[in-house]
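> call design_seq(struct)
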């Protein structure tokens, strides 16, 4: 071997070793092993939207709840079993997260096109981007190469996923714990520009806010009256309300103008604008005044969220059924 080819060979080996120890996700991860992965996912999400306008919102939320617990590793998709205490049954997810059947349809289709190649964790990341772009939002180049966990962390899901009533400072801490900052928090909260929430998750704001016996004073009065009609005091807690009162199924920046009008649905939404002195206020104003700024920040923050502690290299596995660890 000549000395120059020895140098090249050494450099290649070094690059491989570095990749193994500090693996990065990559936009081209499946370009030779499953070149059509994005169009396959896109097609199935598009089909699902025909019968359920809400499904895109449900799918992006799965990616969020996956990434906040042990990183973006598909752990939220595992069913209960003798060895798994599922995240599906954790407090923030039970009777709330949805879209698992669509993820299974995507997996089945990918297993037929590119068997054993695409992880369930990556399916969630790709489906999130497809859902946003199909609803009129931004597109971005999804980074890929995540592998799937062989465990779930129900206790972690109970404690790491933000609750709508725990207050802005606690929620900021939960984002910070996974490396996301205040801009990420405000931008990603903008995902509440589509989808629904159950009355039980905000009804305290309508009748008895923080035990005061009165509604949350930050809710604009006509919106309060509308929400009280949708969610009567002794009604069903599972009745749904639109997270974005203006354009329920479109991905746009109206979420932020709603907050400026005191028409945010969840306590955690309105607090981004109504917490005196908070750094979040000027970010809300900036996203409200310029949708392009919001879209660019949202895409960047989705990439940031998607980078939370992925399993890569030879860690984890590529599940053949997203609901089960291989061989179980
Ligand atoms: C900032 C802290 C957050 C809190 C406290 C929060 C809380 C909630 C709650 C309580 C619901 C309603 C669930 C139900 O009714 O069953 C919801 C729905 C939703 N969340 Fe969040 N969320 C947060 C951040 C995010 C992020 C970061 C994303 C995605 C990037 C997201 C995307 C969604 C979507 C799209 C829905 C509607 C889902 C559907 O219609 O099925 N949320 N969220
Ligand atoms: C990729 O998928 C699209 C949509 O499902 C299909 O039209 C196209 O033929 C596929 N291309 C390849 C190379 O499989
Ligand atoms: C979830 O919903 C089902 C059906 O409405 C109900 O029986 C069950 O108690 C609920 N589970 C929890 C933990 O709220
Ligand atoms: C998670 O929270 C649910 C509901 O509060 C509870 O039933 C369950 O035991 C908790 N799981 C763990 C592992 O702490
Ligand atoms: C906020 O977090 C602190 C510390 O974990 C906890 O004690 C408190 O109960 C949380 N606040 C709410 C409203 O959940
Ligand atoms: C409001 O909630 C507090 C604390 O949960 C409770 O003690 C009080 O009875 C409630 N008030 C009304 C009017 O329901
Ligand atoms: C709701 O139920 C409580 C107790 O079950 C009752 O005292 C109250 O009057 C009811 N409120 C309405 C608006 O029906
Ligand atoms: C909106 O923001 C974009 C990107 O930050 C910028 O290029 C554009 O000039 C802004 N538009 C207005 C009207 O300020």
């Amino acid at each position: 071997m000549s000395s120059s080819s020895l140098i090249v060979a050494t450099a290649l080996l070094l690059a491989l070793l570095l990749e193994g120890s500090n693996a990065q996700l990559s936009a081209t991860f499946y370009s030779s092993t499953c070149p059509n992965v994005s169009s396959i996912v896109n097609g199935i999400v598009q089909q699902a939207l025909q019968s359920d306008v809400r499904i895109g919102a449900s799918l992006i939320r799965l990616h969020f709840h996956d990434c906040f617990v042990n990183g973006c590793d598909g752990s939220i998709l595992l069913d209960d079993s003798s060895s798994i205490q599922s995240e599906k049954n954790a407090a923030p997810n039970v009777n709330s997260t949805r879209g698992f059947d669509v993820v299974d349809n995507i997996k089945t289709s990918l297993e037929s096109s590119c068997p054993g190649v695409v992880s369930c964790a990556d399916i969630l990341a790709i489906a999130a981007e497809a859902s946003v772009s199909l609803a009129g939002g931004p597109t971005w180049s999804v980074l890929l190469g995540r592998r799937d966990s062989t465990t779930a962390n129900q206790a972690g899901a109970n404690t790491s996923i933000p609750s709508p009533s725990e207050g802005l400072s606690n929620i900021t801490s939960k984002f910070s714990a996974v490396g996301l900052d205040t801009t990420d928090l405000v931008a990603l909260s903008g995902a509440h520009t589509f989808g629904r929430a159950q009355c039980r998750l905000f009804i305290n704001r309508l009748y008895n806010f923080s035990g005061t016996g009165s509604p949350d004073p930050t809710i604009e009065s006509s919106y309060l009256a509308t929400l009280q009609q949708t969610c009567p005091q002794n009604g069903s807690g599972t009745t749904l309300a639109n997270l974005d009162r203006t354009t329920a199924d479109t991905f746009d920046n109206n979420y932020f103008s709603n907050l400026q009008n005191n028409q945010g649905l969840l306590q955690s939404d309105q607090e981004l604008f109504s917490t005196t002195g908070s750094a979040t206020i000027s970010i809300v104003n900036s996203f409200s005044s310029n949708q392009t700024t919001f879209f660019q920040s949202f895409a960047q923050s989705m990439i940031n969220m998607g980078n939370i502690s992925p399993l890569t290299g030879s860690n984890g596995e590529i599940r053949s059924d997203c609901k089960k660890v291989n061989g179980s």
